[in-house]
Write a structure and sequence with these properties.
By secondary structure, chain A is α/β, with parallel strands linked by helices. In chain A, 48% of the residues lie in helices and 18% in strands. Chain A has one domain: STAS domain (Transcription Regulator spoIIAA, 2-Layer Sandwich). In chain A, strand 1 and strand 2 form a beta hairpin. The termini of chain A are far apart. By secondary structure, chain B is an alpha+beta fold. Helix content of chain B is 35%, strand content 29%. Chain B starts with 11 loop residues before the first strand and ends with a strand. The chains are: A alpha/beta, B alpha+beta. Chains A and B meet through helix 2 and helix 3 of A and helix 1, helix 2 and helix 4 of B.
């Protein structure tokens, strides 16, 4: 039995705050849960908060990139927020710079980013 | 490479047979890294490298074990981790160390990425016998 990461909703945005060190199976499950929730709740944005994560290895890094791609295909935009400086340095050195993933420093800035791009979509 | 383990403290051995072992190895390495006063960035790099190598041991080596502990050389302290499996071994080490190459479904950054994150890296492998990867990160 693997643990499950809760997915919250604020308006048209789904918010996932990762609060514990994830097993690989939990990471894969989150990917599937999010894809399903984007469609079911007609979400336009996804925020993944990794403030609590002390490390992001290639497996979790790939999950972030994959979620960004899946949500784009489902008409939603993903923003990863709260990356620690040491995590950013390590990811770049590892060879994973997450080119296709948009980021913001914290939850507030991430929400503001999604609000701006949703508004410009409608204009 | 023989890791210069601290004489008064034997390294501990931890099994890698399940996904949850990868998580607990990250925690073990974090405690050791803090004990030898690695900087926060160096701790993060060492834990990340250990996570990659533990996953390799599990996924490609079919499980195995890691021996981890503190090391000392020329008055410097550090942390060493030796990952060992009795899996299929690696036929072409140069290819396996190339960014982006994978024999499975990974990103192909595990070995090459882990090597960039540590100070010392040693890989011994034999087809049909297994693979041993030793990494060391020194406190600055």
């Amino acid at each position: 039995m693997t643990e499950r990461v809760p997915i919250l909703r604020i308006g048209e945005v789904l918010v996932v705050s990762i609060q514990f060190d994830l097993e690989d199976q939990t990471v894969l499950r989150l990917q599937e849960d999010l894809a399903e929730q984007i469609v079911r709740r007609a979400a336009r944005g996804v925020i993944i908060d990794i403030t609590a994560l002390e490390i992001v290895d290639s497996f979790v890094g790939r999950m972030l990139a994959t979620i960004a791609e899946i949500s784009r295909m489902l008409d939603a935009e993903t923003v990863v927020v709260g990356m620690r400086p040491a995590v950013a340095i390590t990811l770049v050195e590892l060879g994973l710079s997450l080119g296709g993933v948009s980021t913001a420093l914290d939850l507030e800035k991430g929400l503001a980013r999604l609000r701006r791009s949703t508004i410009s979509d409608e204009a | 490479m023989t890791a210069p383990w601290l004489p008064d403290e034997a390294p501990q051995i931890y099994a890698i047979t399940h996904n949850r072992d990868v998580v607990s190895i990250r925690q073990t390495i974090r405690v050791l890294a803090q004990r030898c006063r690695l900087s926060l960035v160096d701790q993060t790099k060492m834990i990340t490298a250990a996570s990659e190598l533990a996953r390799n041991t599990l996924v490609y080596g079919g499980g195995g074990a890691v021996k981890a502990g503190l090391v000392e050389k020329d008055g410097r302290r550090g942390i060493a981790a030796l990952f060992e499996d009795s899996g299929p071994g690696i036929a072409d080490v140069n290819l396996a160390m190339t960014d982006g190459w994978t024999s499975g479904s990974g990103l192909g950054l595990g070995l090459s990425g882990a090597r960039r994150l540590v100070d010392e890296f040693d890989l011994v492998t034999e087809v049909g016998v297994g693979t041993t990867v030793t990494v060391i990160k020194w406190a600055r």
